[in-house]
Amino acid sequence: MQLRQMIAPPPAIGYPFQDINAPRDVPMIRVLAVLMTVATLAACNGASDLGDAPTPLGDFNLHHNIVVAPKAQKGPLSREVSKDELAAAVQAATAERFDRYDGERFYHFGISVEGYVLAQPGIPLVFAPKSILILNLTVWDDAKNKKLNAEPHQITVFESFDQGPVVGSGYTKSADEQLKNLSQNAAKAIENYLVKQNREQGWFNGGVATASAAGPEDK
Fold this sequence. Notes:
The chain is of the alpha/beta class. The chain has helices spanning 3-6, 28-36, 83-98, 175-201, and strands spanning 60-68, 73-74, 105-117, 132-141, 146-147, 153-158. Helix 3 links the parallel strand 2 (73-74) and strand 3 (105-117). The longest helix is centred in the C-terminal third of the chain and has 27 residues, at 175-201.
């Protein structure tokens, strides 16, 4: 299997919300700018359930966890972070969540980070920048040597409620803390997507995976 087959190729980027009508070729920088102005951006903390038993995912066992960020775009009013740091943070959060699964078949992730905003201090209650992470996901079935999703699945996540969504997390969190929170939220969003696809498409044969609960301190 070639590495290039594993990585989610960047599709024509469109707005990730169905209720936002925009052409598919809108530049990522404009997507990020629009998302920053949406009021209901915050999410639950993606790491809050890591100490619980994982949601069943059939025979799923993550083998290759490949994350790249060669075309990641920094959004307006964002702190700076390197592409290597982006990839490493997403890879670590993905491993933290999916290494808990010990199913009988290998599956692989190809993830590309497309864009991000790590909020800087803004103006409280008027314009508090929001932290955002956008990535594309491709899931590969090792035994069948084929992609489970023909086109990359795009995931957009935001900072958690407890990261300062009212005044902006830039006031209270470092760039590393913001990126970790976003990456954990992205890993949770990936898990939700896999659960949905397994329920609707039978991606993981509907069996029972062996999974162990482990808190963040055990990883």
